[in-house]
Design a protein that fits this description.
This protein is mostly beta strands and 316 residues long. 9% of the residues lie in helices and 38% in strands.
Length: 316
């Protein structure tokens, strides 16, 4: 099976190496590491071939291939709209100059996928859309610039997702969890997401905006100059906000008052540092993430240095 697959890939113009025995340096933590839904965690393309792509056709062929695969992105590749990614893939940029421009990745009932070390620019819709019961997705060390819509959406019953060490550089709608106030039946009990060590760098809103998800664990992130708000917990979502450094954000948190047309959510905040920022609206109880996974919290005062120097593409 692997020999036949490799032969197809060679004729498609891809550079194929041997089977990948391990993910690139580092391993997922948070919800992407949790054993659930038939998976022991998120391993991506481990066990499959490694291919290097530097054209649009090569990339689209690789992410649409059935079976495990590590896809190494070289240089700048232009795509359109949102392109589907099949399960069991690691998509990782080579070096510090791998760019996906014009479009993004879409997860539709996909699972066990790692997206790392890429810069997404000028996506005509969402840069990364995790939807339709997709699960065990790790989005790590990427940079997001100027998507027309969201940088990352996690919606429609998606679960067990970790978003870590990303740089949201002046983005507008950074991260949506739960797409609609009318999605209670599909989203309640799902949308378990860990969000840590991200740099929300003068991005405007949705860091994240949450409906129904619980727990959504927002920890050790650096919020800087977020114009509209930091975090919004709505529609009975349960969000734990801890150990973050929040600077120059007039509205760090919405929860008990809801947000826009969405009803109230629950939000617990602890061990955060607020500098030149307004109060964090908090209230209610939230399921503890420690019931799912262990984690070590960095001191909030250390977060700006850690995150500004370590988040984003090219910093693996």
């Amino acid at each position: 099976m692997r020999v036949a697959l490799c032969a197809v890939l060679v004729t498609a113009g891809l550079t194929v190496a041997g089977p990948s025995q391990a993910a690139p340096a580092g391993a997922p933590d948070g919800f992407a590491s949790v054993a659930a839904l038939g998976l022991s965690g998120t391993t991506g393309g481990v066990g499959g071939p490694t291919v290097t792509v530097d054209t649009t056709d090569e990339l689209l062929t690789a992410i649409d291939t059935v079976g495990p695969m590590t896809v190494q992105v070289s240089g700048t590749i232009a795509i359109t709209s949102k392109q589907g990614v099949r399960p069991n893939k690691t998509i990782v940029g080579l070096g510090s100059t791998a760019v996906i421009t014009g479009g993004g990745f879409d997860f539709y009932r996909s699972s066990n996928v790692i997206v790392r070390n890429l810069t997404f620019t000028d996506a005509e819709d969402d840069a990364v859309n995790v939807g339709q019961q997709s699960h065990h997705i790790w989005i790590d060390h990427n940079t997001f610039r100027r998507p027309v819509d969201g940088s990352i959406d996690i919606v429609r019953g998606a679960d067990y997702v970790t978003v870590s060490w990303n740089h949201f550089a002046g983005t507008d709608k950074s991260m949506l969890i739960g797409h609609s106030d009318g999605a209670a039946s599909t989203d309640t009990g799902h949308l378990k997401v860990s969000i840590h060590h991200n740099f929300f760098d003068n991005s405007r809103q949705r860091h994240p905006r949450v409906r129904f998800g619980e727990p959504v664990h927002v920890y050790n992130n650096y919020f800087l100059g977020n114009e509209l708000y930091g975090i919004a917990s709505t529609e009975n979502a349960g969000v734990l906000v801890e150990g973050n450094y929040i600077a120059q954000v007039a509205n760090p948190c919405h929860s008990t008052g809801g947000y826009a047309d969405s009803g109230p959510g629950r939000l617990v905040q602890r061990a955060n540092v607020f500098v030149g920022s307004g109060p964090c609206e908090a209230g209610g109880a939230v399921v503890e993430p420690r019931t799912y996974y262990p984690y070590t919290l960095d001191a909030a005062t250390s977060v700006p240095g850690l995150v500004a120097s370590g988040a984003g593409a090219g910093r693996l």
